[in-house]
User: What shape does this take?
Amino acid sequence: MTAPVETIDTEVLVIGSGAGGAVTAAILARAGRRVTVVEEGPWVDPDALEPFSLPEMVAKYRHGGSCAALGRPAIAYAEGRCVGGSTEINSGLYHRLPPDLAEEWRRDYRIDEFGTDALDRYADRIEHELGVSRLPGAPPASSAVLERGATKLGWRSVEFSRVFRYEQNGRAVKQTMARTMLPSAIAAGARVIADCRVARLVRRRARIVGACCTQTRADGSVRALLIRAEHVFVCAGATQTPALLQRSGIRHNIGRGLKMHPTVKIAARFDSLIDHGDVPMHRVTEFAPGLTIGGSASRRGHVALALADSDADYADALANWEHVAVYYAAIRSEGSGRVLALPGINSPLVTYRLTEADMSRLARALVHLGEVLLAAGATELYPSVTGGIVARGPEDLVHWWDALTRNRANLMTVHLTSTVRIGEDRSKTGADSFGRVWGYENLRVNDASLLPEAPGVNPQGPIMAIVARNSDQFLSAV
Amino acid sequence: MLWFERQVVGALMSPALDPSARADVESYVATTLRSMPEHLRAGVALESIALGAPSWLAHRAGRLDERRVRTSLDRWKASKVDVVRQYVRLLESLVLFAENELVPSP
Assistant: This one.
């Protein structure tokens, strides 16, 4: 016998609770709207699990961290699946949208009211509320490596701000959505339902009238929910948002044009001990926004993975893993991909096609990353290229130009965007300038999917500013 | 986890691990494979069946040992066929990460 469907009525339904959904919910709830947030993943206490640890991956990452965009080569990617979304698992690095990029997007996609001044006003608000700041003291050794290497080469480097607050005892606390915007939304009357997956939206002509969901309770039992809403914001991220829209029969420019920052890595060994508790805050910006160099999480497990990617003998380096840290170089790719919901299957098919120019950029990125690490004093570099030689001096780096091929590159990314782009040019976009999905009066997208291109910087800042702007526009229009 | 996947995971694990640690690593790999996107899991399972068929026959004939699996893995790791190379990379990554995160440093 089928269990009866429970019904919930709300004014605004927000699907997803990451940087997009949480900011949307907080702004609308504080304005007096009746808001319900549904999140597919669980509510995990932000202090309960060690950052970047295996238990965190199991609890908070989609598919336990084992996702990949298919293509040549396949690109592994990670995204959050918990209350707070990817803000719970990322490094918290914060960057505003570069002004020239905002102008380029405004022009190319005909986005109304997309000036830097307007976006900066929203960025100011977000930064003030979350507490965006730099490290109060000297950077840790793993971060200073990048600054030192860049200085020696005469390259620019910057200590990035992070979405962190520092307590009086010096403890750094990442201001994730589960710590900030969601409690604020709840205090203003919003309701958050965790472990609740939206199967599809219910359409009635040009309106969405609700969402069919299943919620998994703590005891493992499942209840079917119909959430009826006057307005729906889909904020499930760049892979899940287009998949949900497609499952609901909404397809115009939905899921095409996926963008990301394909990333190569190097495990760098040093003579001295390297810290492993934090992600480096420095970035080498000499080649930005086309190419950015930074540091990754470097727990023992990550070091082992990065060493193994080169396929060289790494036993001695792993035995001395406390001297090894993982660094990356990410490119703005001219290739693109697609998200496609498959009938009868929960997970969408994600594909990505790198161009020949992208492969060339990745090779250049790998060599530049090697240069800066050697300049900083690294003694051995293990590239994420199968069969790539271990570099011990600048003369070895030349071999990497030819080594990085489609069959040998081991790539990953954590930034996915652009699957429901905004703008008034309907031939290129899935939603209007403020995220309202073409053809639907009360359906909006408000997350990373809206960014017309990958920004070349950590996208959390640009996403939150654009989402806040769209939420304000909704409040003024509806 | 399929039979051949268990053989591969066993061959990839460090021989120095005690039985309890081996069980933890195997359990983590099984959980992660189970939670993969369905189409990716189906692809991995198909590869396990295809690549594991000779090993299964050897097992039936009583001629399979870990060294033989290890030799096959080394060959596939350098394969020009991307999906074959990625198959080994996936399982090796899961084993390595679990070994280094679940097992205390020596």
